[in-house]
Amino acid sequence: MRLSQFWQRMNEQFGENYAESLARDHVIEELGSRTVHQALADGVAAKQVWRAVCEAFDLPATVR
């Protein structure tokens, strides 16, 4: 998954403003207790981050 695809999915699911807030502020346990921004900056693959977001927010299987 490309980073642009990741952000497109985030914006589709949460809206642009909330997606950015979530990525900046919400700590996700599955990402080693990091935020989305921290995990991406640390080199975690966008696909892995997306899967963690899906799990953390119980997103439907159709968007996973």
Keywords for this entry:
61% helix; single chain; globular; mainly alpha
Summed up, what is this model?
With 64 residues, the chain is mainly alpha-helical.
What report would you give on this structure?
The structure is a single chain. The chain is mostly helical. It is built from four helices and no strands. It has helices at residues 3-14, 16-25, 36-41, 46-56.
Helix and strand element order? HHHH
Helix content: 55-70%
- Count the beta strands: 0
* Strand-pairing-aware structural class: mainly alpha
- Cα end-to-end separation: 12 Å
Overall geometry: globular
Cα-atom radius of gyration: 10 Å
**Average pLDDT score:** 96
List strands and helices in order, with pairings.
Blueprint: H1 3-14, H2 16-25, H3 36-41, H4 46-56
